[in-house]
Amino acid sequence: MKVSDPCGCFPTGRHYPGIAHLLKIRAVGVATEMDASAPWVDHPIAFIDVETTGRDPQNDRIIELGIVIGRGGMLRKEEQFNWLIHPGRPIPAESSAIHGITDADVAGKPAFAEVAHEILGALRGAIPAAYNAGFDRSFVLAELERAAVRPAEPPPAMRREVDWIDPLAFAREVYKSQESRALGDMAALLGISLENAHRATDDAAAALQVLYALAKDARVPRAYGSLIQEQRRLIRQQDEARKFWRRPS
């Protein structure tokens, strides 16, 4: 008995030419308001960096948050944002030793909940990005949850189904032979200025420029949807490789 082809495909798996233009594939992890087939450098990118009281997003707090916006492959100096935030607790000395932010610096500054809507406004309409994005993303989402901020139309950075662009995943691939792919080392390697390392806006600006520098490498996809899929593949590969790392005895 002959069975009709329910998917509109030839036996080879190719779609009939007459309906190919009607079929759309939705790339996983992309912000749906952005054209996944367009070059990602042409989309607005909100690069985010946080400084914190520690490394645990459930127990530690953000004390500084910086956002810089990139458009068309250029850092927009007029679209840079910074908030010093009172964490509601003392800043440990070991944390201050890294970023230089002390209790005196955040005295009288607003709590995260007081500036949450300003932060979301700066993130609206842009692809979220961060260097070692899992860290920054986990802190931002944890703070928003504690502040009970749930807008009817959240920006891409707040939506859990949207992946943040992470240049570190591509730096680890493109510069495999480098001993370190930390932000400061990558900035120095690529000739990018980073005068105030471990301060949120300075780190975000340098990391955005690292991302644009990596875009020149042929191994970094041009289309937004393709970039996210390749990033997902690289992160899975890198996570798997780390399982086999052994600490020196």
Automatic annotation (TrEMBL):
Keywords: Exonuclease, Hydrolase, Nuclease. The keyword Nuclease applies. Pfam families: RNase_T. GO terms for molecular function: 3'-5' exonuclease activity; DNA binding; DNA-directed DNA polymerase activity. SMART domains: EXOIII. GO terms for biological process: DNA replication. GO terms for cellular component: cytosol. Transmembrane segments: none annotated. Residues 44-220 form the Exonuclease domain. InterPro entries: DnaQ, Ribonucl_H, RNaseH-like_sf, RNaseH_sf. DNA polymerase III is a complex, multichain enzyme responsible for most of the replicative synthesis in bacteria. The epsilon subunit contain the editing function and is a proofreading 3'-5' exonuclease. DNA polymerase III contains a core (composed of alpha, epsilon and theta chains) that associates with a tau subunit. This core dimerizes to form the POLIII' complex. PolIII' associates with the gamma complex (composed of gamma, delta, delta', psi and chi chains) and with the beta chain to form the complete DNA polymerase III complex. This is DNA polymerase III alpha subunit. It comes from Chondromyces apiculatus DSM 436.
